[in-house]
């Protein structure tokens, strides 16, 4: 298992967090919460793609979801 990309991804997320967090003001609680959620989701997706690089992209899900609707509209 290659740990280099995982460590690099984690360090990148930490740098983003350390650079952007001080710019958020103390009374911006919702913005801080969303920043933490979006950053952690991006980090989780990057780690997941290191473990499973052949995962289908989001367009495959959209095609699977809307292909029957497209057939009905034609």
Report on this structure:
It is built from three helices and no strands. It has about 70 residues and is mostly helical. The protein has one domain (about 5-74). Helix 1 packs antiparallel against helix 2 (about 30-50). The longest helix is centred in the middle third of the chain and has 23 residues, at about 30-50. The mean pLDDT is about 90.
- Contiguous low-pLDDT stretches (5 residues minimum) are none
Q: Taking all residues together, what is the mean pLDDT?
A: 89
Number of strands: 0
Please outline the major beta sheet: none
Helix segment tally: 3
Cα(first) to Cα(last) distance is 48 Å
Overall tally of domains = 1
Strand content: under 5%
Order of helices and strands: HHH
Helix content: over 70%
Rg result: 18 Å
- The coarse silhouette is flat
Structural class: mainly alpha
